[in-house]
Specification:
The structure is a single chain. This protein is mainly alpha-helical. Helix content is 62%, strand content 0%. It contains seven helices and no strands. The termini are far apart.
């Protein structure tokens, strides 16, 4: 899964200065360290705490995870906006300029 995410977001990660070739190795080491040092706390460990504890040691995998966690889970809000725009911009109002949409 990490390899798929790395491939999918390679250009965005590279633009942030992330070493994409190190992500999989960092993921393996991070999992190992989390299980060995925080085995009893894994269910309550927050992502913010993981970033604070291991950010300097594993910057590349943590950058990928931050990117993934920032993605919206659903697109319902976006779809709602387009549905509303479709209602406003109908065939009856096809000559309505885009600057006028803001006033509706």
């Amino acid at each position: 899964m990490v390899q798929v995410l790395t491939t999918q977001f390679r250009s965005s990660l590279a633009g942030q200065g992330v070493e994409t070739t190190a992500i999989e190795a960092e993921w393996t080491m991070l999992k190992s360290r989390l299980y060995s040092r925080n085995k009893n706390q894994l269910t309550t460990l927050s992502w913010e705490r993981v970033n604070n504890m291991y950010g300097e040691d594993f910057p590349n995998i943590l950058s990928l995870m931050d990117l993934v966690l920032a993605l919206p889970v659903q697109s319902a809000e976006c779809e709602r906006v387009f549905s509303q725009m479709k209602l406003v911009k109908s065939d009856w109002r096809s000559r309505l300029r885009s600057d006028r949409y803001l006033n509706i």
